[in-house]
Amino acid sequence: MMTSARFWRSALIALAALIGAICMRTWQQPISLPAAAPDRFRPPSSEGPTVPAWLPADPLSKFGNAAERPLFHWTRRPLPPRPTPQTTAAAAPIAPPPLPNLTLRGAIITSERRMAIVEKPGEPDYLRLFEGQSLDGWTVIKVERSKAFLTSGVQKMELNLALPDNR
């Protein structure tokens, strides 16, 4: 008498052999190719692209004003025209931001990041500024042990480490 595991193993081997025989039979049959390639695979003609017969010549006219309404806007009303940018010949130059009133209170330098700890009047806590971070239009470009360098356009500023006041 066969055990249950032996029975199922034999049944699976027989099923795999049957599937293999069917696959071998289908692979041995010759493949028939069409005599001419379908139209969608033909190279484009030299006269230009052809429009399929089922596609109307002017597809937007078929849908009326549906093409003018935004499909995914809840009102479905036409959008207002975009304003055109107006350039003036005598545009006033943008004034650089004023020098910030900052005091360097410390610096933390690790192998991965550099951070300046600064004090800004009116702020209850010290601010942590990493290299590349901006504050009031000024970007921290370099942090050293006792200095931090900030830039805004062409202006540059250096903060030196200040002695702590007893906060």
TL;DR?
With 167 residues, this protein is of the alpha+beta class.
Characterization of the model:
The chain has one helix at 4-28, and strands spanning 103-109, 114-119, 127-130, 134-135, 138-143, 147-152, 155-160. With 167 residues, the chain is an alpha+beta fold. The chain has a domain at 103-160: SH3 type barrels, CATH 2.30.30. A four-stranded antiparallel beta sheet has the order 4-5-6-7, with no helix packed on it. It has a three-stranded antiparallel beta sheet with strand order 1-2-3, with no helix packed on it. The longest helix is centred in the N-terminal third of the chain and has 25 residues, at 4-28.
Shape field: flat
Note the total helix count. 1
Which oligomeric form is depicted? single chain
Mean pLDDT score, rounded? 78
Low-confidence stretches are none
Q: Strand order across the biggest sheet?
A: 4-5-6-7
At CATH level 3, the topology of one domain is SH3 type barrels
How much of the polypeptide forms β-strand, as a percent range?
15-25%
CATH-derived architecture of one domain: Roll
Largest sheet: 4 strands, antiparallel
Secondary structural class: alpha+beta
Give the fraction of residues assigned to helices: 10-25%
* N-to-C series of helices and strands: HEEEEEEE
